[in-house]
Amino acid sequence: MHNPSQSGASLEISDLSKAYGSFKALDAVSLTARQGEFLSLLGPSGSGKTTTLNMIAGFTSPTSGEIRVDGREISTLPPYRRDIGIVFQHYALFPHLTAAQNIAFPLQRRGMPRRDVAVRVAEALEMVKLDGYGDRYPRQLSGGQQQRVAFARAVVFKPKLLLMDEPLGALDKKLREDLQGEIRRIHRSLGITFVFVTHDQEEALALSDRIAVFNHGRIEQIGTSRELYETPATEFVARFIGEANIFSGTLVRGDAGLALDTPVGLLPVETRLPAGRQASLVVRPERLEIGKAPHAGSDPHVPATVRDVVYLGSNRRIEIVFDDGRTGIIRGSGRGTDVGAGERIDIRWSIADGYVVPFSSSQTGDGHGS
Amino acid sequence: MRGGIPRSPGRIFAWGMAGLVMLWLTAPVLVLLPLSFSGRRSFRFPPDTWSLRWYENFFTDSTWHASLLTSLKVGLLSTAASMILGTMAAFALHKLYFSGKAFVTGFLLAPMIFPGVVSAIAIFGVYLTWHISGTLTGFVAAHTVLSLPFVIVSVRSALRIFDWELEKAAASLGASPFETFRLVTLPLILPGVLIGGLFAFVISFDEVVVSLFLQTPFVRTLPVQMYLSVTESIDPTVAAASTIIVIVTVASILISMLFWQKRKTSDA
Amino acid sequence: MLNDTRLRWLILFVPVAVLGVFFWYGVADSLWKSFASPEIGLQNYAAFLQSPAEMAVLRRTFLVSIGVTAVCLAFGYPYAYLMTVTTARLRTLLMVVVLIPFWTSMMVRTYAWVALLQNNGPLDRVFKSLGIGGLALIGTPGAIMIGITQILMPFMIMSLYANMVRIDRRLLDAADSLGASPAVAFVKVFVPMTVPGVVAGCTLVFVLSLGFYLAPVLLGSPQHAMLSQLIVQQVSQLLDFGRAGAMAGVLLALALSVVALGAVLARPAIERGYGENT
Ligand SMILES: Nc1ncnc2c1ncn2[C@@H]1O[C@H](COP(=O)(O)OP(=O)(O)O)[C@@H](O)[C@H]1O
Ligand SMILES: [Mg+2]
Q: What interface predicted TM-score (ipTM) does this complex get?
């Protein structure tokens, strides 16, 4: 029913900052979302995601910077003139109105005739699979149903931009996965530009066209799921997206080329960073191979001790401890992974599977991996 | 140590005290009921003859029923005024941050702890020079300022549990701040506003000291009429009036409670 | 726009202005007159403080208020305590008995005491039949106290109850299990935790009783006048706003210092973590 290329707005944020006193909640953030794109803002709690969203919505005024929607600067518009749909974390449904009245609210504010309102509300309820629930009050609906009403209410007036702040945060895992599927489906059918805030990397990976990774009020990297996973810009991104084995040290130029001098040994790497720099090497768990004896070839390898093996059906997840006491993870299947706890092994990877990121001292947040 | 059955001597003593308190609090009002049906012009208790003549007198003697009418008028007008002003004050206090907010809050709430007589001479002194003493305007103004703090307190506690995210939601859906207040905030804090209104009405309907100064033979509230009657003559119409006041008060409480119940069930 | 800060200030300004004009202006005016009517100076205060008769009234007002507060506390404390420990059904009964008079007209309640306490009235005859004649209460400070106490008792009980319901009863059980007898546990553990409620209730009752007018007029007598009667007399009979303002000023100062004292007294208990209460 819509032409996707027309119903989504572009969003450009440049050098956006927000200071609370001397504390910088947001520090010169720039990002763009293309028309109809699904962009996620991902980061640990307190990293500035909600602050960004509040400024796009108009609830908070920026300390500096610009926000443009379809090229138009909106910072001076009050929230109720911005025509941006918002799904709140705790839904913010009006408790004194029924589901249908909640959904009708934005249409009535726009002076739509009563009959058209009824049609649009019915359509919206159908879209979120809640036909027949229109007369219920929010407290008579389950969490998932409330979430759907909130979603229907935020899109029923056909905004060109939809903001969602951890909309699935309060739901259990099964329900989240169902709703993730639906959000994707609706995104595709409406063609609206979605800006989706989450601290759950799996959710971001599953839903987004692109992800902006936030940390301490800054953006660490913006890219597709694949870019973030395979070529993280920083150690923080490497830890936050997926699982990673990380070795830190100094780049040195050896006989066979560049290598990283780490507490567990000299590890050959390929990188454009110059020798002498502090850096970290990121190797994803599924890229590691297990050998029973020290590797003889030129590939990087490290001795380790198996701590635990978790069978996950088709593959297994092996937790290991390196000789410097740091932990790592291997994922894989087949004969090579047939090891037991306490066993001494030698792990190796192809030099091209290691990815070097510059060393950074600020490593916080609920990162995964080693 | 649990339960309502006295076992320890301490518990028996406590129940004894509580029994006295219960008698103390309720007995006097219960005494009035038979007095109002007395057949004689006396406060003799219990009455030896019975009649409805004091009720009849209440509704035929214009000094009595006119004062009831004045009380209702003053009560309703001042309740409306203090509900509106109190909601405004509580709302603004909740939304504004400034140094000196504690002072402004005190300014708005202090009349609550003012000794009644102090308020009375303060109000009377200036209303007299403004020529609104003895007018309906004067009564409404005085009762409004006396009940305003109670409305503010009640609305403030409703605002404290109001979810401000709902205002953001309304704005994001295109509601102007005024529409947001009318369609979202006000309906949700209405219980607090109504409880404040109930307080305001009962306070106004009950007020004697200030009204005693402001009254004239032409504009006189019911409690003032009762006061004058008690101090001037033995007239059991006072007992009938008391019974009527108790009925009006209990009725206004019951009506608010029913209204409540209805709101609750229509929501459910 | 309600979001506009300027509009919020306007919304605040209207009630502040109404209260300022119709209440505070009068308060300021009567205090001003106490220093300036009929001429600038402290003569109104001097006249009040130097008149033995008027000082006796002030003393009586003070004593009656203390008496009322003490009686309210003595009877209200066990009552509020029972409300916290008894069954839900009895608690409702106790609550309703407190709240019904609270909502009943003060004029009605005071008048009821007039009917009850009058010479040859029901109570008088009960006493006479018991052989303790001549105990005419009406017209005495005792009658005033009975009337005021009845009206203020609910305030005391609700203040105490609001504090007592928040006390963690497990602390008492803990004291029990440590071998303290119930009475010792009550005095050493429970009572100290109710200090904020006691202070709040006593402050409220004392301050309110200072300014009572109805009960003293209807139940007392001119020989046993209270300060509020004196103030009313100055205004309504002598039209002396200066003298009345001075007395009101003293009464107000007394009330405010009691409130401040209550706040100071309650603070250490609150800081010990027994919770701020109403
Ligand atoms: N009104 C405020 N005053 C002071 N600090 C704030 C305010 N709002 C947010 N912050 C701070 O800004 C930082 C970013 O917050 P937020 O954007 O809510 O993070 P996120 O949504 O990523 O969890 C946090 O450290 C938070 O404490
Ligand atoms: Mg957040």
A: 0.87
For residues B128-152, give the mean pLDDT. 95
- Ligand 1 pocket, mutate which of A16, A17, A47 (most atoms under 8 A from CB): A47
What DSSP state is assigned to residue A157? Answer: T
CA A370 – ligand 2 centroid, Å? 26
Counted across chains A and B, CB pairs separated by less than 8 A come out at 65
Per-residue model confidence as pLDDT tens digits over C104-150: 788 888 888 888 887 777 777 777 777 776 666 788 888 899 999 99
Q: What is the mean pLDDT of each run of 10 residues along chain A (370 residues)?
A: 63 94 93 94 93 94 93 91 92 95 96 95 93 94 93 94 90 86 90 93 91 94 92 90 89 84 88 87 90 81 90 85 89 76 89 86 43
Q: Do A223 and A247 have their domain in common?
A: no
Domain region containing A53: 11-228
Q: Which subunits have 3 or more CB–CB pairs within 8 Å of chain B?
A: A, C
Ligand nearest to the CA of A89: 2
Question: Residue C45: left (phi > 0), alpha (psi -120 to 50), or beta?
Answer: alpha
Indicate the CATH number of C43-271 among 3.20.20.140, 3.20.20.70, 1.10.3720.10, 3.40.50.1580: 1.10.3720.10
Q: Which two three-digit tokens encode residue A306? A: 């198996």
DSSP per-residue letters across A38-79: EEEEE--TTSSHHHHHHHHHTSS--SEEEEEETTEE-TTS-G
B-chain CB neighbours of A137 within 8 Å are 267-268
From the options 3.40.50.12240, 1.10.3810.10, 1.10.3720.10, 3.90.1170.20, give the CATH code of B61-267. Answer: 1.10.3720.10
Inter-chain CB proximity A90 and B165 less than 8 Å: yes
Q: Which residues of B37-69 are buried (b: 16+ CB within 10 A; e: fewer)?
A: bbeeeebbbebeeeeebbbebbeeeeebbbbbe
pLDDT digits over C190-209, tens only? 888 888 899 999 999 999 89
Ligand nearest to the CA of A214: 1
